[in-house]
Amino acid sequence: MAIDKVYANCAEAVKDIPDGATIMVGAFAGPGGMPSQLLVALRDQGAKDLTIIANNVGMGSTGYGARPGQSYVDISVLVENGQVKKAISSFPVSPSPSSPTAFEKLYVAGKVELEVVPQGTLAERIRAGGAGIGGFFTPTGAGTLIAKGKEHRVIDGKEHIFEKPLHADYALIRAHRADTFGNLTYRMTSRHFNAVMALAASVTIAEVDEMVEPGGLDPDAIATPGVFVKRVVKRDDR
């Protein structure tokens, strides 16, 4: 008997996320691959003191990636609603000093915590978390503030620092198509952080464009096996 992981809507999919949860959020920058409807549902659900692991912590509705006259939803909806306590991120600030993000303003005011992680290191720490690896040495960040408090080792004459894996209680990701078992395919660049985050959370929730029955996906196109996905919800197209 096939396991049905489909939830009726995004609100149902996120309703049990508790205060203090650590949440990975897929997407690179801008609207591409962003689980926007899950983010809105989590904003409405109201969980507080969240730690967010993401490439960026939201650019706002008029930030990077928005076309003129167009708005989109990103992690800013959680930040602006006072739900985020800490971010682990590569790009927590706006690319334009004249347009600071909501998170940037709160950080300057001392109201949120931040751990900056180089982008490649962030992806590898998430991958290590999903793979069950205890950590790794990298030369990236050696000799900088990022290295403070971390183990150092010289490998082949080059200084390296030790980075620990990242795990999350939940991962909110965006995929293109899913079957009811949770197998996922991605479209174009949306594979980026979404696919690796799916493996590193206790509960992975996928927001998808299309839903099919088991057997409806080309096996060679499946990038995330359903064994890693606990919940799937189809986007509301209205």
Task: Describe the structure using short key phrases.
single chain; 238 residues; alpha/beta; Glutaconate Coenzyme A-transferase; eight-stranded mixed β-sheet; three-stranded antiparallel β-sheet; 6 helices
Order of helices and strands: HEHEHEHEHEEEEEHEE
By DSSP (H or I, 4+ residues per run), the number of helices equals 6
Largest sheet: 8 strands, mixed
Overall strand count: 11
Distance between the termini: 33 Å
Shape: globular
Radius of gyration: 18 Å
What is the count of structural domains?
A: 1
- CATH topology title: Glutaconate Coenzyme A-transferase
CATH architecture: 3-Layer(aba) Sandwich
Q: Could you name the ranges where pLDDT drops below 50 across 5 or more consecutive residues?
A: 62-70
Residues in β-strands, percent:
25-35%
What is the name of the CATH superfamily?
A: Glutaconate Coenzyme A-transferase
- The CATH top-level class label: Alpha Beta
Percent helix: 10-25%
